């Protein structure tokens, strides 16, 4: 049996080089827009959280950034908590809520499809995190088209 002679890792150790950035730090030009769409179920994978964080980063880089929740993506924008709304049942339980609230507080807009909200997931508009703008299902396509006409950066997120 080979003997392990390497000392164990400890808190504070680095495993990779966190300081050598390969690409320039891109900032938005005046008027640049971004749209991040979500057609993904809350808690079914990491993409919901990752792209909310990407939207926050785009906003901080100067892009006028919007998030579009449609289909199962509306589940990211629902108020949660247990046993009461706002109570975090386990660490990370409210990560979508907290990060969407932070995004909106920093000037981002979040839209949620009313059809998916009610017809697919049985929620009404009062179930949305305050600040999320409910839209008609016909607005989903128009939101994307308006961003496309504005030459916006569009990140489409789909999970199946």
TrEMBL record:
SUPFAM superfamilies documented for this protein: DsrEFH-like
Superkingdom classification of source: Bacteria
Family matches, as InterPro entries: DsrEFH-like (IPR027396), MSMEG0572 (IPR023847)
NCBIfam families named in the record: MSMEG_0572_fam (TIGR04044)
Protein name in the entry: MSMEG_0572/Sll0783 family nitrogen starvation response protein
